[in-house]
Amino acid sequence: MKEKYYFTDDIAIINFDLAWEETKSGLLKSDGFADIAMQFLGFLNENNPDLYDWAVRGKDKKQAVKDIVDVARMAIVFTLDEIENPYLDDAEMFLEFVEEFFDFWKDHQRYSVTTVTGETESTSFVNQDSTFNHLVRNTFRTLEQRLMGRRTQVFRQQPSGTNGAIAVYQHGETGLSDRYAFLENVMFIDSIMMRTPMILHPKSNKREGMFEEVVKNPAYTFAGDPEDYFCYPAKVGSLMIFICFHKDYISSGVPCANLFEIATREEAAAKPDGIVIFGNPDGEGKCTFYHDRDEEVWVGSVSSSEKIEYFGYMKKMVLTIHNAIMMQRGWLPIHGAFINITMKNGVKKGICLMGDSGAGKSETIEALKALGKDKIRKMEIVFDDMGTFHIEDGVVYAQGTETGAFVRLDDLDPGAPYRDMNRSIFFNPDKHNARVITPAAPYQVIVKNSPVDLFAYANNYDDKTGLNRFETIEDAKDVFIRGRRMAKGTTQEVGLSETYFANPFGPMQKQDLCGPIIDEVFSKLEENGTFIGEVYTHLGLNPDGDDIGIAAEALLDFIEAE
Known about the structure:
The protein has 562 residues and is α/β, with parallel strands linked by helices. The chain contains 16 helices and 27 strands. It is 31% helix and 27% strand. It starts with a strand and ends with a helix.
């Protein structure tokens, strides 16, 4: 990032390589403070005209900012009775201005960026950001106490400077041809610090549209300035995918740290399996992906748009690239949840529930966890949304893609979001379809082979209850491939819909490639005697009922049986 400061109406990024203040006075007279103050005056003009008139006093806004900064710098040194200034004739109005300004600043999604050059500096950016946070908070408190005329007695240690920080480095060679030369000028993320619980308010709260395979490489249409992008080198399952996002979407890029394992510099030095360009200024308004057969790399592109602030766009594009690559290798993508459960009696089972968004996978597992709390010794999450099945030595094994879970708050029991909230990132928790990203499993767990004991389709549309085993493999494949579900409003779909293999993220687009893998995997599951069936969640019929408890009870009975 070449600027000292980058401000939009809801994002603030500070480049600590170019901008660093050590004193309250220096902070107040900085260019960044003046820029955000100008933005604040524009906000006041629309939302609080009386306070705007008090602040501007008929002057040019730039001059008004300078005058306010001058008196504020005096107020952090002297008491009010030592200062003669028209702004202090009404200290209560000045206090209201300061408090609203501070709230306006905190309403931004705020980040710092620091370049690091060696391992010894890998944590220094955290200390630097913490120092900045302390400086901003103390500057506000000093002004507040001066204007109140008394000391503060209740202290709230809010993240006053930033919500998070990233340490970046110049990557250099990528092992790819010149068509991907833009990557050499994109700063790669080495480390991330988040002040959790992090609460973000993106403008979009739902994913719309489909991911389309195209015949033209998005790398050829990329017209952005590489210096405006950051790259999160993500270990997605066993793959390396470079997620390159424009700074406008930093609030989608930073939360990747709660979902995908970040690669070390040494790991990221290898040629990537996939590349995602997030916030591509191509004017297409699309989410597309492409297979570069010459260099054997898959490229995803998400066009720049206000609606893509929803984190689901980034997550699902990455997983679409992952799924396309894995199908090429003969692995079967599974849109579902997989858990390894160890009971107190020593029985261990690998349980997989498959289904599209809103089918009830997460709810059923949460109900199972609550129902079996006195019987379950350990529950290990292999994947919460997307994983793969593959055959090795005649056995079907599961592996995951993500170290975290991106779930709807409504899908969890009321206490679940709070059990791990100190490590979580919340998106629009006050709105419908609110989401949270919470850590779920170590990377070593998701990439190890986990045997499959039960493979059930999460059926949220039939009025049957409990758990049903298919009589024939053909019956099973018919249900799984049709991918029916009653939509709950988590995407643009409504009512009963069908999606090929319940997976619009690769399998639906590449059915010719996916079909033979389905046949092979299901045949091997049948040969090995794996339970293949349906679990009835009723979420499409009775979303507020307790029917899902019957499904959880049936699953618990299966797990307990030796």
